[in-house]
Specification:
Blueprint: E1 6-10, H1 15-26, E2 30-35, H2 38-52, E3 57-61, H3 67-81, E4 86-89, H4 104-131, E5 135-140, H5 153-173, E6 178-185, H6 207-218, E7 228-231
Parallel strand pairs: 1-2, 1-4, 2-3, 4-5, 5-6, 6-7
Length: about 240
Amino acid sequence: MFTGKVAVVTGGSRGIGLAIARTLLQRGARVAITATSEARLREAVEDLGKVTGSSNVLSVRADVRNYSEVEQALQAVAQKFGGIDILVNNAGVGVFRPVADLTIEEWRQMIDTNVSGVFYGCRAAVPHLKARGGGWIINVSSLSGTNPFPDGAAYCASKAAVNAFTEAFMQEVRHEGIRVAYVAPGSVRTDFSGRASSGSDEWKLAPEDVAQVVADLIAHPMRSLPSRVEIRPSRPPKKR
């Protein structure tokens, strides 16, 4: 389905990002992943190489908080695979504690990763997508962007910013053939919050659920632009 397409997934070495990379490979794309850990990138490439072969996978160490690293990473992908058609801005970080206890560094880490990282990826990707006559940019947001909760003020603010940024950016580039959307998952069964998932988390979304939504968006015909998708667990624990 995506044969001939080249995709970049930031934060692609684990969790949702790894699932997205795997799904895009399964549908025929060549995929590059970025992350900050060389060790995790090596493990991810070994895993992804089992899908269609290592020649269709590229890893690039890059910190999305650093624009020059993002720009250089996308350039490396374009040189390796001949261009870029799809960017999935998935890299994110969350620290969950009351505002009074949140450190300045933790605030900056979330804003720089979750907001600036998305901006950097979009800005660096536009010339590559224009060169291919268009493409897709999908930003992974969260239901917390519209449903704030205690101890998550900074994280919720960062995702609300991603939502607003994405909707404005979408309108700027749609006539260039670049389709932009954001996917907002609810609770997902990963170690994102700092703890490993357990049997009690079975009600949560699986990373593969989010990956399917991303791939299905990309598969939409050019005439359509589903610009926002919310995905949530179908049967969460009942609130008493």
